[in-house]
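Researcher: Structure prediction, please.
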Amino acid sequence: MRSICFYFQVHQPFRLRRYRFFDIGKEHNYYDDYQNEYIMRRVVDKCYLPMNKILLDLIKEYGTQFKVSFSISGTALDQFEMYSPEVLDSFKKLADTGNVEFLSETYSHSLASLKSKNEFTRQIKEHKAKINKLFGLVPKTFRNTELIYSDEIGAMVADIGYKTMLTEGAKHILGWKSPNYLYTNAINPKLKLLLKNFRLSDDIAFRFSERSWNDWPLTTDKFVGWLNEIGEDEQVVNLFMDYETFGEHQWEETGIFDFMKALPQAVFKNSNFSFNTPSETSEIYQPVAKLHVPYPISWADEERDLTAWLGNELQDEAYDKLYQLEAKITKCKDEKILKDWKYLQTSDHFYYMCTKWFSDGDVHKYFNPYGSPYDAFINFMNVLSDFEIRVKECK
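Model: Predicted structure follows.
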C-alpha cells in the first residue's frame, strides 16, 4: 500500500487597526477587534465547523483507515478561545479519535526561523505547550510557517528534537526527482522530509472551481485516476493546503464538500492508496536521498521563495526593525508587551506589504485590509514605533 498524507494549515492573524502617527506614544491597543471577530466568525461558519463535521463523519465511517493532520497557529487558537470556543470543541472531538495528528509550528506563524534561533525555539516550545494543553497531544512533526525550509532551518528543527518536517516539493530544488518519496535534511539526515505534491494539492486548493481549467470539473474518479498514474514505486502523495480551501476559498456551491466526502471511498475502491498521518508516513517508509536546499523555499506563489514576505524594501525595513528589538524583549517581563511582540511577528503583516501585484496579485489581496502595500507598511511602522517606546521603557 502507498500513502496519501493530508495536511491542512489553519491560521488567522491578529489584524491591526488603523493606527495613526498621532496615536504613537498615546494609544497601545493595536488590533482591529471587530474585523478579527467578523472574519473569524465568517470562516468558522463557512469552513471550520462544516469541514470538521465532515472529517469526523468520515473517521466514524472508515475508522483507522482515514486520517488527516492539522497545523493550527497559536494566533488562530487564541482567536478560537476568544471568539469561537465551539470550534475548539470540534477540533478536540477530532483529536479524541486518534486519527488526527496535530503538528508543531511557530506560535505566531512567524518568520523567526530566518532571523533568530532563540526566538524560533521559544515559539515552538510555546506552541507545543498550547497544543498539549488544548488537545492532550504532544506534536511529533514540525511544519514551519508557509512551509519555509532550508538546510539550515531543517538542522535547527532536528536540534530541537523533531524527526519529521514538512516542506514544498519545489521544482527548482527537486529537478528531475519526484516529491512522492521521503527525503532527509542535507545537514542532519535524522530529519525526514515530506514534500508537498503541489500539482495535485493545487488541483484541489486553487483549480477546483476554475471553469477555464481544462480538467474542470474535478471529480473523485478523475482525481483517483491521476493518483493511479503515479509510478508504483513512488511511496506517498502529500496533499498540503490551507484548510480555508474548503468553504472559503472554494465555496460550498462549487461542490468542494461533496468532493471531500466522496474521496475516501473512491480511493479505497479504485486504488492501492491508504491514508496516513505525517509521523506514520515517516515511520512506514525509508528516505531515498538527501534534499539539498541551500536557500529558503516556501509554498507561496509561482517562485516558491520568500518574496511574498521579504521581497522589497518596505518588507525588509519593517522586518529588520522589528527584530532589532529582540535583545531588549528578552529582558522584559511585561505580559502585554510580550504578547504584542508575539502577534507583531505574524508573517501576514509583511505579506500585506507585498508588491508582486502582477503575477500573484489576486492571492495577495485575499483578506488584505489595506488599500496598498504602502498603506500596510505605514500602519505597521506606526504601531512598531509605539511598541518600540514601550519596550525601551520596560524593566
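Model: Residues 33-62 form the longest helix (30 residues).
Researcher: Thanks, that helps.
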